[in-house]
Amino acid sequence: MKTKTLALLGSNSIHSINKQLLNSILRFDEAKNIDNIAIQNIDLPIYSIDIEKNEGFPETLKELHQTISNYNSYLIVSNEHNRTVSAFFKNILDWISRIDFDTFKDKNILIITASTGRMGGKAANDYLHTYFSRMQARRITTVTFPSFNDNFDTANGQILQPDLEKQIKEALLSFRADE
């Protein structure tokens, strides 16, 4: 099992503010301990028990699960749609839990949600915290990134608020502390 962290983006939008934030966060990783895979390019049908029973698990899911299983910590950067995670990311999580319910058991998770609103995707953050708690993650650390348009320089891909940047950097250091 790798001691590196795997970054997962919870948005499949090509204009995702969360993708911009993730790219900025990856620049903090001077030791190159975070791998990033483009799950937004994975083609999965909407989860259905009928598909699972009649067709089995899609090959793309098996490959994704194999990749995810090789890590013991995860950086999740996710958006918020209608006070929850996007249907895209929820579908990924649904499929992963069906192929192996224990995928995230005893793993460390850092959840960062961003939105243009002042709550910073708190509802999606809370949803993901509850989800990974039920999946028996070992340690879950959360950060919300509010008012993205005011706190992020999209032209330069940089966090503008020193307090937000500090909070994210501290979370990156602390969530893997027991590895």
Automatic annotation (TrEMBL):
Gene Ontology, cellular component aspect: cytosol
SUPFAM superfamilies cross-referenced by the UniProt entry: Flavoproteins
InterPro entries per the UniProt record, alphabetical: Flavoprotein-like_sf, FMN_Rdtase-like_dom, NAD(P)H-dep_reductase
Molecular-function annotations in GO: FMN binding; oxidoreductase activity
Domain of life: Bacteria
Domain NADPH-dependent FMN reductase-like: 4-144
Pfam family membership, one: FMN_red
Protein's name according to its UniProt entry: NADPH-dependent FMN reductase-like domain-containing protein
Lineage: Bacteria, Pseudomonadati, Bacteroidota, Flavobacteriia, Flavobacteriales
